[in-house]
Amino acid sequence: MAKILRIYPENPQENLINEVIKTLNNGGLIIYPSDTVYALGCNIFDIKAMEKLAQMKKTKLEKARFSIICNDLSHLSDFTRPIDTSVFRFLKSHLPGPFTFILDANKSLPLAYKGHKTIGIRVPDHPIPQLIVEKLGHPIASTSIKDDDEIIEYSTDPELIAEKYDHLVDIVIDSGYGDNVASTIVDLTSGEPEVIRQGKGIIL
Question: Where is coiled-coil annotated (predicted)?
Answer without folding.
Answer: none
